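Need tokens for this chain, all 129 residues.
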Amino acid sequence: MAEEKQYPESGKMPAPSGGQGDIPTSATPPAGFVPPEPVELARQFPQLEILELLGQGGMGVVYKARQQQLDRLVALKVLPPQTGRPEAFAERFTREARSLARLSHPRIVMIYDFGRTEAGLYYFIMEFV
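Here are the structure tokens for all 129 residues:
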């Protein structure tokens, strides 16, 4: 028989211990990358209404946006500018985006668009879940 877990009086799981908060992970943003403000992004994505910053991780920043012409919510993922520096990156990014766009599964978000802005930011416009 499995042992029943005991939680503090609050009924919530205790926070993990062990001082791991200082250890870099794949969710650690690249050094020096500051997410663009929604107003700044709006100039680079006139087809979108940038609503809010949803989160930031090791692979970029995700915003909630509205695709105005289709009146649907989307997720806009912007990659850090440092990511696109190697010359082979653009080709690999395009190949991976096209591969993702061919996938259709209930547990995989749809890719609606991808590219590079005039300011040099690589991005995905994806299904908002």
